[in-house]
Specification:
- InterPro entries: Mab-21-like_nuc_Trfase, Mab-21_HhH/H2TH-like, MAB21L/cGLR.
- Pfam families: Mab-21, Mab-21_C.
- It comes from Microtus ochrogaster (Prairie vole).
- By secondary structure, the chain is an alpha+beta fold.
- It has one domain: Poly(a)-polymerase, middle domain (Orthogonal Bundle).
- The longest helix has 18 residues.
Length: 412
């Protein structure tokens, strides 16, 4: 199958372009509501979601099955929220991006109107030395192998370690100053969230839109050893595809590792959102899956529905604050890996596929095991990250929704 796969745009001269968000040569960041892309890029927080489930299993009988099935069918056209990659300045200095509000998404049904966007502001950092933090595989301390005179990032160093919190703080200051210069739009910078790698803009006019601007260090070195057994797509997208994707750069975002009830301010977390986005777009074992003229599948529809379900539950229950759309995305990638055949995702069986995905996600919660798709030793559902009580609460709410035909879809 691998010989028939289309090779991703791994050329350095021609980096994958993100269509959801683009950065003009003058540094302008413009977030768009469309989720298409030519290549890998950071995944977005969105009101939409993407696919998973196994139509080959027997469907479970639920209360109000016809109503649930019809509701799911109505929601199939939902679109994922936009995310994007902002090109870094030629120099690694922190320079203020000129910010303008993203174009308003077209009015569509609730699940298909994205109102949350991610923008990655890339900063290339050559010759860095990564030191794994506490055997996590995901968090690292960043040092420079050689610090030349005039290194513009030298004042962010603490005992030769590049401080993530210092850089993020400076980045936030720059964004705030730029926002002050915007006179014709109602835009504000939200309060800093502990442990978050993003600077969040809230745009209230003409409609409320949230934009996360994420500072990211770009490294073109080999991926860290903790990723060696990750990206398990050999039996799905092929060995050649996996090799090609691993030649892409990787990113580090200023995410503090949690230490007890506090955060380690110097750490950076690995990010492969550009690879995730590429896979989301090129998801079929047949390269023509979901292309114009090709057969369609319901992979993305399942993902959109599950993301939307989690989002609505989080609106109602503060107990679910620890969960995010990335957990749903990671789960669906594992589901697609286990069920790689396109025929298993026939759109005619969307209701069954979605039910299978819900079952899979609940099982991950119950066993407290959701391994990072790129870093297998990093468990996103570990006790250290999310307590058992929160996971049991989410299981209870998901099962209630499923057994009652997902009434929460009608509330918002």
């Amino acid at each position: 199958m691998e010989g028939r796969r289309e090779r991703p745009p791994a050329s350095r001269a021609k980096k994958p372009a993100a269509k959801r968000t683009t950065t003009e040569h003058n540094g302008t960041v413009a977030a768009r509501s469309h989720a298409r892309s030519r290549g890998p890029q950071r995944g977005a927080r969105s009101r939409g979601a993407e696919p998973d489930g196994d139509p080959m299993e027997k469907p479970t009988t639920r209360a109000r099955p016809r109503q649930a099935s019809m509701r799911i069918k109505d929601l199939r056209s939902s679109a994922t929220g936009a995310a994007g990659v902002a090109e870094q300045p030629a120099s690694p200095e922190l320079q203020p991006p000129a910010i303008q509000p993203p174009a308003s998404p077209e009015l569509q049904p609730p699940i298909s109107a994205p109102n949350e966007f991610d923008v990655m502001f890339k900063l290339e950092v050559p010759r860095i030395d990564l030191q794994e933090y506490h055997d996590t595989g995901a968090f690292y301390l960043v040092k420079f192998k050689r610090i030349p005179r005039g290194n513009p990032l030298s004042h962010f160093l603490e005992e030769e370690i590049l401080s993530a919190s210092k850089m993020l703080s400076k980045f936030r200051e720059i964004i705030k100053e730029e926002v002050k210069e915007i006179k014709d739009s109602d835009i504000c910078v939200e309060e800093e969230k502990p442990g978050s790698p993003a600077v969040t803009l809230l745009i209230r006019n003409p409609e409320e839109i949230s934009v996360d601007i994420i500072l990211a260090l770009e490294s073109k070195s080999s991926w860290p050893i903790s990723t060696k057994e990750g990206l398990p797509i050999k039996n799905w997208l092929g060995t050649k595809m996996r090799t090609s994707l691993r030649r892409e750069p990787f990113y580090l975002v200023p995410k503090d590792a949690k230490v007890g009830n506090s955060f380690q301010g110097k750490t950076w977390r690995l990010s492969f959102s550009h690879i995730e986005k590429y896979i989301l777009k090129n998801h079929g074992i047949e390269k023509t899956c979901c292309e114009v003229g090709g057969a369609k599948c319901c992979r993305k529809d399942c993902l959109k529905l599950m993301k939307y379900l989690l989002e609505q539950l989080k609106k109602e229950y503060q107990e679910l604050e620890a969960f995010c759309s990335y957990h749903v995305k990671t789960a669906i990638l594992h589901m697609w890996t286990e069920h790689p055949q396109d025929r298993e995702w026939d759109p005619k069986h969307l209701s069954r596929c979605f039910d299978n995905f819900v079952t899979f996600f609940v099982e991950c919660l119950r066993t407290e095991k959701l391994l990072h798709y790129f870093i297998p030793k990093f468990n996103l559902f570990s006790q250290e990250l999310i307590d058992q009580k929160s996971k049991e609460f989410l299981i209870e709410k998901i099962e209630y929704e499923r057994n009652n035909g997902f009434p929460i879809f009608d509330k918002f």
